[in-house]
Amino acid sequence: xxxxxxxxxxxxxxxxxxxxxxxxxxxxxxxxxxxxxxxxxxxxxxxxxxxxxxxxxxxxxxxxxxxxxxxxxxxxxxxxxxxxxxxxxxxxxxxxxxxxxxxxxxxxxxxxxxxxxxxxxxxxxxxxxxxxxxxxxxxxxxxxxxxxxxxxxxxxxxxxxxxxxxxxxxxxxxxxxxxxxxxxxxxxxxxxxxxxxxxxxxxxxxxxxxxxxxxxxxxxxxxxxxxxxxxxxxxxxxxxxxxxxxxxxxxxxxxxxxxxxxxxxxxxxxxxxxxxxxxxxxxxxxxxxxxxxxxxxxxxxxxxxxxxxxxxxxxxxxxxxxxxxxxxxxxxxxxxxxxxxxxxxxxxxxxxxxxxxxxxxxxxxxxxxxxxxxxxxxxxxxxxxxxxxxxxxxxxxxxxxxxxxxxxxxxxxxxxxxxxxxxx
Length: 424
What we know:
One of its GO terms (molecular function) is transmembrane transporter activity. By secondary structure, the chain is an all-alpha fold. It has one domain: Growth Hormone, Chain: A (Up-down Bundle), CATH 1.20.1250.20. The protein has 19 helices and no strands.
């Protein structure tokens, strides 16, 4: 940002809001489409033609398909974090989006489990660019008092994606075939690639539409009053901070919960609650629609009261309650309602935990730090689907797997209480 060229700035006095339309909006689109791409496998795992064509049988195999994505997603974030700090967020994003669009094409032409595994692995590498890129752009473009609203805005794409994608994928797979769902998602990803190339820039100093007033506003409000880790511009200083590791564990536990539950929820509703294939997708979409509302409301109030950990801990407690009630109800309607409430809360803690990460790392190292943060978190999150798969097979029902997952949510709840006491 120090290379700011005043000649590129529109001389109007009224502040532009480029940061919201040109940065938050394309990020929202990217997260929406990326979630549709990654969630494609979740709904197809309840699609009999897909399972029969590829010879997929057993929950352990299903969990592996989800976990292989999370492993490459984790290492992708680590690599992309350092790449982004070196070549910039926009250029890195263009490369990553291209990779994941190709991965969807590969999935559409797959004729074996191994090809689907390769597709999922490449998708993880490509989509690994998203969080380091988004956090870097958020650090560069948004003052601290707007960062929760900004992050919950683009993070809501993770809920918009399933709302739009799950019914769409189910309808396309039922009417035309599962391969067509891959090809359509690949085309949508390419459209998003073009929009991101046109709209986004690494920082306000490089953008063609931002004016001097907005630039000054962003610059003057990026300093945080309370410095948590001293020299936040040093990677080493951040990594030796206990608070960084607590945030990593909290995020990891919620990620285990999200991926462990969301991977099997359509199959769980279909197999154990007697809800048909398309309706299970609609229920999941309803939960993600609720998640959008929850995200935006908590983003607004957490910026207003600056108490992000309170909302994170509260979500953890409610997730445990709703999951337990869902497991032990025999009424399919009640199970559907509880599933919607559960999904509505599963998303929110992650965005606010990432917002708290801005208090321990500066914009200069945010790409690298978020890459490390994401790599560690998603390597741990990769255990989620496998834990559900293993424990559900051992217990003979999904109950065993989901109860095992709740232990991690309980740990995140405990650590959230500690963060509240530290002023987060």
